[in-house]
Amino acid sequence: MRTLERRQLLFAGAATLLGRKLFAQADRAALIEDLVAANHILYAQNIVDAFGHVSVRTAPGAERYLISRSLAPAQVTAADVVEYDLDSKPISDTRTSYRERFIHGEVYRARPDVMSVVHCHAPSLIPFGITKVPLRPVYHNSSFIGEGVPVFEIRDTAGDTDMLIGTSELGRALAKVLANKPAVLMRGHGAVIVGKTIMDAVARSVYLEVNARVQAQAMAMGQRINYLSDGEVKKRAAADEYGRAWDLWKRQATLQTAASK
Ligand SMILES: [Zn+2]
After folding, report:
1. Is the pLDDT confidence value at 4 over 70?
2. How far is ligand 1, taken at its centre, from the CA of residue 19, in Å?
3. Which domain CATH number covers 88?
């Protein structure tokens, strides 16, 4: 091969590699932008307060995830995002981590289909974790609840604790109870909600909380409740599309962030 041709080939190869690297960087920047928006949306929608967190897997099948350093979700910026492995060890960051990050690592390990995880302490969910009343789908936006929302009892694994998922062992026990479901309630603590995208995990978190409030209101009326049927839940699973809600929430969150600067 002549020198000129070889040079052209080398140049083309380098350009492809550079192109791939630029694409990967753009993907990561978009992922971090969505993660920051998710933090702000969950706060604006009253799903998290000073506590609670949301994460995203770095790529399908990847054994890494991104989450903020220990910080109130409303305050998270791109500079606060840290990468972790599935043992929930930071890759290269020494800032304080969320104590309950093991929820995320162990759910990603157990559920290859999951791309995003939310952990919250929304008060309206608590009654359904401390009584025998199951959370059931009361309206179309929360139909995914019909797939099942189990309750994690931390005492079954560790007896009396400080209630937090502060180890990989507890994270594994929680992920086992979550199994293949869209969410799990944590008795006397909160919930974990998963999704195949950040948008799914955030929207499910919002509608899980709305469902809990509406179900409690309906139960207080003392009449038999007409829940979504199994057939309706199945048909809704094919129709679930939260894009419009996500676009609106992201815009609101962006405007609020800009206004607070
Ligand atoms: Zn918690």
Report:
1. no
2. 41
3. 3.40.225.10
